[in-house]
């Protein structure tokens, strides 16, 4: 049991310069006895309102240097404070606020919310067990307008999809990775490096791109690049929900079909998923 959707903004001031971190937290516990379920005995139950208040107090006292460190703080607090807690899991996701720049100069106290993917993390621990940390990015929308195709696929009497050697590749990406046992990592630096790997593997070199024969191959390229460059990652899961675009037939309007006007196919949409780990 636990408390979901604990939302708050942590404001940190260094002189005139301000820093913000807005997060949503879900904190769940499992107790050593199920007596509250079986007998209606609530003597061991930590109220969910107390859970919420503890999360807010930890944010006030310790700040949020990184999402992962804050999730670890939550796990450590419940494990060290309540002997009846057998398991704790903390999920933290961040609202993507970025410092506003004016003519290239960073503003000291103004921010803009940029929808370029939501950072999240999870930390979980069993009593007398290791602290396990996961991190990830979700709702990251990516597109490339060429250097993608889909050919040579299985065909039968139900196949209507034509082969394409030049198409738009677009989708919403979910990526989650495991660090294994918690260590003293620079979580902020690692997260930024993995995000850069995702973008590089998806797009290819900036001057020419890189051909993608399928969404599946693109998913695998992302995973392989992350595992090759970020040694701290043990397992990486990637889900790519596809958005397809159909070319509008302009012939009836007296124009040529040059693939310059397209409409998205809202539903149904495809999805590719893969989990890859080290040996």
Automatic annotation (TrEMBL):
Pfam families: Uricase. The keyword Oxidoreductase applies. 5-hydroxyisourate binds at residues 48-49, 150, 167, 216, 242. InterPro entries: Uricase. O2 binds at residues 48, 242. It comes from the Eukaryota. It catalyses: urate + O2 + H2O = 5-hydroxyisourate + H2O2. This is Uricase. The gene is Uox. One of its GO terms (molecular function) is urate oxidase activity. Keywords: Oxidoreductase, Peroxisome, Purine metabolism. It is found in: Peroxisome.
């Amino acid at each position: 049991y636990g408390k979901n959707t604990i939302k708050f903004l942590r404001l940190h001031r260094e002189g005139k310069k301000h820093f913000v971190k807005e997060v949503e937290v879900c904190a769940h516990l499992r107790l050593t006895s199920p007596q509250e379920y079986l007998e209606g005995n609530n003597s061991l139950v930590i109220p969910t309102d107390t859970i919420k208040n503890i999360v807010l107090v930890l944010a006030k006292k310790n700040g949020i240097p990184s999402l992962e460190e804050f999730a670890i703080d939550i796990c450590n607090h419940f494990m060290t404070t309540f002997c009846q807690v057998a398991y704790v899991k903390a999920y933290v996701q961040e609202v993507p606020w970025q410092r506003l720049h004016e003519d290239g100069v960073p503003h000291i106290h103004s921010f803009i919310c940029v929808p370029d993917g939501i950072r999240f993390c999870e930390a979980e621990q069993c009593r007398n067990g290791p602290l396990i940390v996961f991190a990830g990015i979700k709702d990251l929308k990516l597109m490339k307008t060429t250097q993608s195709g889909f050919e040579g696929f299985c065909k039968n009497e139900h196949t209507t999809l034509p082969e394409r050697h030049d198409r738009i590749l677009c989708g919403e990406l979910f990526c989650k990775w495991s660090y294994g046992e918690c260590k003293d990592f620079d979580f902020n630096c690692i997260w930024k490096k993995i995000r850069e790997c995702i973008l590089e593997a998806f797009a290819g070199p900036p001057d020419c791109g890189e051909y993608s024969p399928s969404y599946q191959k693109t998913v695998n390229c992302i995973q392989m690049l992350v595992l090759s460059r970020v040694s701290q990652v043990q397992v990486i899961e990637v889900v790519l929900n596809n958005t397809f675009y159909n070319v509008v037939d302009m012939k009836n309007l007296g124009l040529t079909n040059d693939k310059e006007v397209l409409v998205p196919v809202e539903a149904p949409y495809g999805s590719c998923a893969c989990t890859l780990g080290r040996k």
